Amino acid sequence: MEKTEQQIIEVCRRFGIAGEYRFFEVIDSGHINSTYKVFFFRGGEMKDYIVQRLNTYVFQNPIAVMQNISSVTEYIRAKIKATGRTAKRSVLHYAKTDEDNYYVILEDKSFWRCCRYIDGSASFTQTDDLKLIEESGKAFGAFLGYLADYPVKDLHIVIPHFHNTLMRYQALYDAIAVNAAWRKDEVLDVIEGYEALKELATKPYRMQCAGELPLRVTHNDTKTSNVLFDAETSEYLAAIDLDTVMPGLVAFDFGDAIRVAASTVDEDEKDLTKVALDLEKYEAFTRGFVGFTKGMLTEKEKNSLALGALAMTAECGVRFLTDYLNGDKYFRIHYPDQNLARAKCHLTLARDMAAKLGVMQEIVDKYCK
Ligand code: GN1
Ligand code: MG
């Protein structure tokens, strides 16, 4: 039996999962953690679990990550139950060990967690289905709404400066200066492209620093694949992947979602003539998201949403480019130039957003009324 499988079985044993282990599948949509769907046979049927090994290079204090996640999910669960509904399929349920921990640390220091797979759920990386896109807007909007009165200061900052766009640019400059993987000369035009967007891209963060936009409890990783939908009705069930729940800007959650949900292509599309912001998709997401959040947003926050999309697209692209220059240390890649492909695709998308910014904000305004 290979090591991963042995580790998965050991983790499930420590979480007290009953029944007979059958098999596991790799889920490789995330770029950071290692995720497995694990099947147990119990009481005459198959039960499935999501088992994850956290990337402790990225999450240096994984216990703090699990503290954030457990308190936030318990908070949401209590809110849903208070309305008389069941929270069973609307929020993740993490397993606990006999020692009352939401994690298991194995002998090789690897850090693991486990939750029940939500029955009848589905997720998507990219979709053209406007109904699903609108539902994903609702999922992240509802998430912000549930946590609108959660004490922001109680959250651990699990990755400092996560959406500090200025610092993300600085990290790019550092990577250019060190040029660790000898790749700088092939990306000069991409660097220049991001430099031209810097003023716009860093504006929401600068507004945060100036106290013009409030810090709220935000998800911070709002890509479409981080929403679970009901496989039959296509309605949203829950926002998942809560590793980066931290204080942040609503513009960042909206923007990071748009980066993926309203793009015409996958994150690493190489044919740049295909890359654009799809205004129909954009409107569908906005309708769902703003419908759930407009009551809690200040005027300045409403006015920052479209710009947030440009900021998050450029910031994420800058991070991909930085990682490419550093020799692919952070994001998992599936082929050699993937981080460069991601960076070029994001630059093209961010430029298209810059051209469409006025229309994008008008669409936000329409649903804020
Ligand atoms: C990473 O782990 P995953 O794939 O959900 C990254 C996000 C990026 C995203 C780009 C902790 O998310 O910030 O936006 O890749 N997560 C972390 O697809 O850095
Ligand atoms: Mg993530």
Task: Give a short summary of the structure.
The chain contains ten helices and ten strands. The chain is of the alpha+beta class and 369 residues long. The model has no long low-confidence stretch (mean pLDDT 97).
If you had to describe this structure to a student in words, what would you say it looks like?
The protein is α+β, with helices and mostly antiparallel strands and 369 residues long. It has two domains: 3-119, Phosphorylase Kinase, domain 1; 130-368, Alpha-Beta Complex (Aminoglycoside 3'-phosphotransferase, Chain: A, domain 2), CATH 3.90.1200. It is built from ten helices and ten strands. The strands form three sheets. Strands 1-2-3-5-4 form a five-stranded antiparallel β-sheet, covered by helices on one side. A three-stranded antiparallel β-sheet has the order 6-8-9. The protein has a two-stranded antiparallel ribbon with strand order 7-10. A hairpin with a 5-residue loop joins strand 4 (104-105) and strand 5 (111-116). The termini are far apart. The mean pLDDT is 97. Bound molecules: 2-acetamido-2-deoxy-1-O-phosphono-alpha-D-glucopyranose and magnesium ion (MG). Magnesium ion binds next to loops. The site of magnesium ion has 5 residues, from loops.
Topology:
Layout: H1 3-14, E1 20-27, E2 34-42, E3 45-53, H2 62-82, E4 104-105, E5 111-116, E6 121-122, H3 130-146, H4 165-178, H5 188-201, H6 203-209, E7 216-218, E8 227-230, E9 236-239, E10 246-248, H7 250-261, H8 279-293, H9 299-326, H10 338-368
Antiparallel strand pairs: 1-2, 2-3, 3-5, 4-5, 6-8, 7-10, 8-9
Helix pairs in contact: 3-7, 3-8, 4-9, 5-9, 5-10, 7-8, 7-9, 8-10, 9-10
